[in-house]
Amino acid sequence: MREVLTDNPHHPMARTQMSVLRRAQNRLTEAQVEAEIAIACDRNNELALKQLGQILLFQGQPLAGIPHLEKAIRLNPGGPNLWSIEWPLGQCHLLLGHVDQAIGLFLRACTARPELYFLHLNLSGALGLQGNLERAQTALAEALRLKPEINTIAQLRLGSQTKAIGRFAIRPSTLAYVEPAFQTNDDWARPVLILHL
Hints:
The chain is mainly α. The chain has helices spanning 2-7, 12-24, 28-41, 46-58, 62-75, 83-95, 99-112, 117-130, 133-146, 153-159, 172-178; strands spanning 163-165, 168-170. The chain is elongated and about 55 Å long.
């Protein structure tokens, strides 16, 4: 990637991939800069828009993340990874108190990728906030059916220390052998929405 950026510092996909890398490293300010450069080079870069929306969410700016995520959806409304945009968009809405919108987005994400336990956890939390405890319990039961070892907050926190790369789940300590820059701490963005009240 460095060679590509050396030859063409405004290559939008290389900048987008640098944004993905910096976000995975929990270097969110740098990730935001890379995503913004990628979007400046190609304002219809769906992946860069999604990255920027997620980064802003992780930085505690859900309202600022929404327009980028919504634009990414408008650019490819039938895309196979639409769920991966609807999920953080749902998190943004949930954090802003737009519970009904969050539930709709989480339901669509769960329908598209029913095998992903963390989508069901997010849906369960939103349904619980809405007061629909029966449906929340059903969603939680599905999450536990998919990943039974995540049955306590302690196990959830331990499980969230595993980083998914492609189809493989790798613990951060393993990543040290792959690329030292991937080392993370306990503050990196987890694959589920944890609300601290």
